[in-house]
Amino acid sequence: MRDVLLNDRACAAAPALDHLDWLEAEAIHILREVAGQCANPVLLFSGGKDSICLLRLAEKAFRPGKFPFPLLHVDTGHNYPEVTAFRDRRAAELGERLIVRSVEDSMARGTVVLKSPNESRNKHQSVTLLEAIAEFAFDACIGGARRDEEKARAKERVFSFRDDFGQWDPKNQRPELWNLYNARIHPGENIRAFPISNWTELDVWQYIAREQLELPSIYFAHTRPVVRRSGTLVPVTPLTPPRDGEVVEDIPVRFRTVGDITCTAPVASSADTVEKIIAETAVTTITERGATRLDDQSSEASMEQRKKEGYF
Amino acid sequence: MSAREPLPEVQLEDNGLLRFLTCGSVDDGKSTLIGRLLYDSKSILADALATLERTSKKRGLEAVDLSLLTDGLQAEREQGITIDVAYRYFSTGARKYIIADAPGHEQYTRNMVTAASTADLAIILVDARKGVLMQTRRHSYIAHLVGIPHLVVAVNKMDLVDYSQEFFDRIRQDYLRFAVTLGIRDVRFIPISALAGDMVVERGNRLPWYKGPTLMELLETSPPAHYEAPGRFRFPVQYVCRPRTAEHSDYRGYMGRIESGEIAIGDEVLVLPSGRKTRVRDIRLLDRSLPQAGSGRSVTLLLEDEVDISRGDMIVKVDDPPRVAKQAEAVVCWLAEAPLEPGRKYVVRHTARETRALVAAIEYRQDINELKRVAGGRLEMNDIGSVTFKLAQPLFVDPYRENRTTGAFILIDEATNNTVGAGMIV
């Protein structure tokens, strides 16, 4: 069968790309297009594994030069200290400028109003992000979102157009053909660029292993007090205390995503190395967001809704 | 989920990446086929399956409807249709797959051209009861036009024709008859039942007369992405790196992706548009120096001589340069509500280069149902036609048939900034 499909001109001398090479080359191409087409882009860096991959890709795209964009983190004020410490250290190691804007500042300004003090601040990040975009006049935000994460992301463009209000209109996206990206916008509008659109969770872990990338410690198995709540492990923290009747257990867990403490749950795991995590990820039976993002479970369409409101 | 066996082992050998496109409507079982590929390759995870079971029940279905897996947006679920191209991912352990799933109804041409532009293989679904339809011809025409190297005709719903070889053979002959007229050469035929699972991932035992590969076997052995961009070295410069630091005071790195061909240190190169010749001093990927690099790789080239090069320029090999075009004839697929008319001007984006284009003439419009050419006029949304452009600045082009990157461009409306057309250079 191979004989039928292969034609003689296909036998090139340079080594064939494996799937990570291909994904890496595509992501670097996308980053360079952002730098080439946009006047004032920014890279969203949270200290999470996807944005850690973005930083390595940016090194491959632009070194020995400096990145043609600063890094931005929209801090909910409810992040795990291990992650924010890692964020600051990584930015310093790279010698790149890190801008932190906090949801708490938006609350102080009155642009974010919480319904209850311990409410998840995850969705409120949109407001703070849009305020930061306006403050610095960013014309493009580079993010680590992946199409495999969630249904509403499966139709997201690599260069996703947002209007003056940061809104994503799924019915009015620009056609995206070949590797030709259109970042032209009017003042006030914004492009969200997603270099790892085509990566899956497993690809990310394989890339972390191949590139030997350092991660915040909470990605690896550690013992943590948790309670079991409707099929999910909820970490016990001052922000997320146990409810009446819940039993607190100390068990080995790791985080598959890291975000706001109030909406990010760990999974039971003893995987304490990247290799063990890859082995677990390859045979996992639960999607990343389904397992660990308490905010996405409320409605089948909740991500779509948030993206329309300016979420990245 | 509980009825399914766990994965036998974690196997992560790497046989590259394949991008494929599925063409057909819901009626052809396209969504069921994608669901089947994901399900049988164990790429559907438990919570996605649970959502699927809930939705199937809500809609009064007895068995899990695999087609619901490809339902994307809330707006689409409410209307029971798909609006836009969706991308799906699965991995067999040996190879990673990206499926471009284009909807089958209105705006079909626009969506299919978009999905096809990045595909290495197309699966064209034919309903075994209905045979080769106008839609089959339209899909095949577009897949061929957009240069997808491998076509697979999956004759689906074999369960509804008693797995009859007669039906399959007749469809095969009908298809080959018109495929020849389009110039399609590499086409394979597989009888399948996406619903029952025959010949998709598992062979099943109801098609003993078929001796060829299953659909999955075909996908696993088809040449991977970027494997078939041969010969001519094309390196569009996306970005120029000049750090001007003490350590790198004279560094000039030309950054881009090798779109076709390959390059080695020491090779003589030609820079367009300046026409200057020099040699490759180094090929960098972060801290690594590559002695040679092939198509698909994003690298940084260092050259022996100081040459003035900026974004949008192209580095090529001396002996086989592209055409430097101030005028271009192209087959255009029109994507926008407002029609394409002679005399209009657009921004054209080609590789990393941007210039302006004037529509000089529309030679013909292609009737993709009857597969014949209609004279001139204008191109409405979803129309495909041949257009001649005058260009404000030259582009460095190859015929699309020979190079899917340097032969392709998009048109952008200057007023709205929308992408309005997709062009393939003749």
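qc> Chain B has three domains: 17-221, 234-317, 323-425.
qc> done
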